[in-house]
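Extended Data, panel c. Modelled sequence:
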Amino acid sequence: MTTPFRSIARRLPAWLRRHEERWSQRPGPVLLAGTAVTAVIIGLVVASPRTFRPSYDYSVGDFATATIRAPWEMLIPDDEGTARLRDEAARYTIPVAAFDPAPASTMPARIASVLRQARERVSDADDRRVVPQAELARLSAAARRRLQQDRAREADRAVQEAVQQMLPVVERQLAVVLTAEERTLLAANRYERRLEDGLVALVKEAHSRPIARDVQQLREAAERSRRPGGSARVALRVGNEGQDRALVDASQLDDVPGAVERMRERAPQLLPRLSASEQVVLAGLASRLVTVDTVYDESATAQRRAQAAADVMPALLQFRRNQLVVDEGHEVTREALVVLEYLRQQGMPQAFLRRAAGAAAIVWVMLAALLWLPARVGLGTVPLRDVTFTVSALVGATVACWGWLSLADGLSAMAPGVSRTALGLLFPVTAVPMLAGQVVSRRVLVGLCVAIAVGAGLLANLGIFFAAHTLAVGLVAGQLVAPCRQRACIIRAGGASGLVAFATGLSAAVLSSTSLGAGEALLSAAAASAGAAVGGFVALALSRPVEWLFGYSTKLGLVELLSYDHPLLRQFMERAPGTFQHSVATALLAQTAAEAIGADSLLVRVGALYHDVGKMGAPQFFTENERDGSPHDTIEPRDSARVILAHPERSAELLTQYRVGGRIVDFAREHHGTGAVASFLQKAEAAGGQPDPADYRYPGPKPRSRETALLMMADKIEATARSRAAASEAEFRAVVSATLDDLLDDGQLDDAPLTMRDLARLEEAFVTALTSLHHTRVAYPALPRPRSSPGQAL
């Protein structure tokens, strides 16, 4: 019974062949549509969350009934958190007080100025006591004595007048009313310098700390703004320019009574030259000179707190894709509710579509650059088979990565001790690149590896690090497996890729987390290495289904086809031995030619070996199999041509039936191109008819690859050389040159990507191969006949 898989495996290569011609004519629109569909599929896979339930109804303190993870990268505004941060910023903004430094400097200056002025007035008055010597010289001794006494009394009166006159000046300058004790102290001591110094020292001591109008209010405001573990501070604003200095401890604030008390306590140390009574009187005067210099500025404080709150950046809750929001059985926090509310407001459909559209756009651009752009810039059209494989492999790899990472999430959730990074890196990233390395060109391989890496990076928690790991290991694996012709070679390529994966996996693990331990890093690297090695076995297991589905002929499959034990080849040898010998010789010629120009020699050899299997249906109609005359002598030329022209399609049918491969089918169909069977056409014309030349030409198509063109050349050169019995190098060269000229003149090589340099190399290669294949041997001497012994019967 035919299974659905086998049915698809048979139909897909046929579909590819039916649409190959249409594809070659208009590849652009088909490519853009196909890559768009592929991009949409991958976008949907990338955007779909691996573990997320959109239905929930929780309150803070409830216990979650399911594990919820972030479905994509999220930066969620936290309004409540922002308000809390702004309240804290406003609350912890220290109060502002307007501080006037003038009292601490201007009052001592005024004291010094007015007392200095008083001393000068007293000194001027006292100077009247001095009598000039010239005046004294004219007087007698008694007169001198009387004059000096008069001047002394006059000076004393003047000094007393000056002392008394300066008291109002002192009161006016210092803006105080002097007490009787203060007047007596100043007058008795005639405003001495020690009084000035003492009074200045007392005032400066009082103003050594800020003196607030309402110290309790300011201290309470500072206490309210104090951070835990910090001190109560106050910002002292000096002047209108807003220059502030911080008072680190509000306890240093004083009011006027406090400053006066502190000043009185310090008076004995500040006034060592004054008696105790003098200290008391002078301290009393100084206490009335102390004034407020600090005032709580509530307006400025409010403005500063408002600005501090406004300067706070909005609080954001950042979650990476698949990061845990709330775990099953754990208490739901306020932050978790914010995330769930955000998801509810965003709406899963809209967010899903946005992410899917972004991922699809990226993938579409990459696929267009890989598959559509080369034809537009003259680099050649990518074959339809390669396009189909590329998009299928990309979708398959993305879906497999999604499934693997979902499984890794589930395992890590069930076993928290298991490293999620290691589980993610265990994914066999080499499987698809190894498959691609066996069947597509290196240009397509590189583009496919890049596309797979981008998809993996969008899916994995490691992001760009996982993408870099996937790209590096994939490129190495694809390049290593490209020349493999044995299954053991693929396994070795997987092992070598594992060494590269160890380094890239270690780098990805270390770069993705700053808190990753050495043990976990090494475990992640070992997991990456194991995953890359396992990818070789996966690629080996999938190589045969890939051949069936897409009609590829891998090198492994081609090597198996070279075995003469293949059932189709055994039938070929038995039923058409002459054609089989021709195919073997043609294969040797084509392989030599392929090696000369760097074409796929293994593919050419296998294609040449199987290209004529369709002749098994009527082997006697082909010259190399004729025994007793030609059957063409008894039938019409058109019937003969029909038998001959049918063998390429019959070969293709047999190759498809025996699942030999799509590329080998191309050799069967294209090895004659649209060439004519000229002998039967000439025979029909000689019979007097008017035959249609189209009835005597192969249906084609013409060779579209270097390999099928080489088979066409080798097939015709081998047949021509055999029919002419050529034996010398000159004859071989003439056959090769004439054959190539005929094919070029007939336009059979127009669609093949061959250059004139290739043709020159091919001519030499064919001549060399023919010389080796048809070399002559030295004639062996005749063996002597045995003589008869006597008596033996004759």
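DSSP finds 32 helices and eight strands in the chain. This feature is highlighted in the accompanying rendering.
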